[in-house]
Amino acid sequence: KLILAIETSCDETSVAVVENGEKLLSNVVASQVKSHQRFGGIVPEVASRHHVEQITLLLDEALSEADVRAEELSAVAVTYGPGLVGALLIGVCAAKAFAWANQIPLIPVNHMAGHIYAAKVEAKLAFPLLALLVSGGHTELVYMENDGKYEIVGETRDDAAGEAYDKVGRVMGIKYPSGKEIDELAHIGDDTFHFPRAMMNEDNFDFSFSGLKSAFINTVHNAEQREEILSKVDLSASFQAAVVDVLAEKTMRCLQKFPAKSLVVAGGVAANQGLRERLEQEVSQLQEEVKLIIPPIRLCGDNAGMIGVAAFIEAEKGNFANLDLNAIPSLSL
Ligand code: ATP
Ligand code: MG
Ligand code: FE
């Protein structure tokens, strides 16, 4: 089975061809990062325009790279939420047109399910599964008894982890999105600031990152007023230590309450080296056998390949859409 997948929920236009829900024959990603950088964040209107310009080119590119003709496809899948409404609509319209023109089924996919299923490219998923979803807009712990069954058991009460990275990066003068660079600086520095670990020891699986963000910003501003220059590497290391501590602590505690055979870490922040190393170490110390599965770095950020993998599960459940499919910006799992 060959599925053509389309992803346009945010600032990456991407089209992929996926075979049998696990093999990526192609996965073309056009990032708009450069166009948004000068604004220090994503401008929705700019994102939509770029998607319009790119989508048909990428469709051709994904098919030719996979060496697949449109007639050979069994379905077309598309992200219909969550994300920016204008951006999502470009992908949804393109997918509908493609499905209609080629008379093939349309599969609606939740972007966050896509992030989780990116892990399937790395290794076979064993259920029950616990997923730590950490991205630009979400921070959630998701328990899955089986394929395609999602239960959100914890989530952020304010900022997402990736969002916090991007906001403190801005204060340090790091270009958007700043997660990757802070991760690199953190490896050179030390946790000298001891920022707060909000909710870390509370008896729930929720997160909060806005206090950490404020503490960080206050520290930098107070230093500026004293005309003191703080070490960027130590600031980065301290911030990352706080984020990783909270994410790892809560995830490991969640695993006690929701025993799982695999622990998946997914979303843009799953690319974080500090988080990967910490969870590897924590999981290796467990008495029970838990398989830690993290997608390869290139599949942690937004891409259509992961949408094609998740779409296969939706198709198996018989979950198809009509041509009246609409984008749902606040869609949840
Ligand atoms: P969502 O998936 O919630 O809709 P999104 O699609 O915008 O949001 P992703 O593309 O999954 O988010 O992830 C982007 C985020 O990942 C950005 O906030 C970015 O700073 C962060 N990020 C990328 N690499 C790293 C890294 N190595 N360490 C920490 N954060 C990172
Ligand atoms: Mg992005
Ligand atoms: Fe995403």
UniProtKB/TrEMBL annotation:
This enzyme catalyses: L-threonylcarbamoyladenylate + adenosine(37) in tRNA = N(6)-L-threonylcarbamoyladenosine(37) in tRNA + AMP + H(+)
Instruction: List UniProt keywords, sorted A-Z.
Output: Acyltransferase, Cytoplasm, Iron, Metal-binding, Transferase, tRNA processing
What is one Pfam family matched by this protein? TsaD
Q: Which domain of life is it from?
A: Bacteria
User: Which ranges carry the Gcp-like domain?
Assistant: 23-308
Q: Does the keyword Metal-binding apply?
A: yes
- What does the UniProt cofactor note say? Binds 1 Fe(2+) ion per subunit.
Positions with a binding annotation for substrate: 133-137, 166, 179, 183, 272
Q: Which cofactor does it need?
A: Fe(2+)
- SUPFAM superfamilies tied to this protein: Actin-like ATPase domain
Gene Ontology cellular-component annotations: cytoplasm
Where does it live in the cell?
Cytoplasm
Q: What are the protein's GO molecular function terms?
A: iron ion binding; tRNA N(6)-L-threonylcarbamoyladenine synthase activity
Q: What class of enzyme is it?
A: transferase
One example of a Gene Ontology biological process annotation: tRNA threonylcarbamoyladenosine modification
Stated EC number for the protein is 2.3.1.234
Residue positions binding Fe cation: 111, 115, 302
Q: What does this protein do?
A: Required for the formation of a threonylcarbamoyl group on adenosine at position 37 (t(6)A37) in tRNAs that read codons beginning with adenine. Is involved in the transfer of the threonylcarbamoyl moiety of threonylcarbamoyl-AMP (TC-AMP) to the N6 group of A37, together with TsaE and TsaB. TsaD likely plays a direct catalytic role in this reaction.
Q: Which family does it belong to?
A: Belongs to the KAE1 / TsaD family.
> Do you know which NCBIfam families this protein is assigned to?
gcp_kae1, T6A_TsaD_YgjD
List the protein's name: tRNA N6-adenosine threonylcarbamoyltransferase
Q: Which organism is it from?
A: Pilibacter termitis
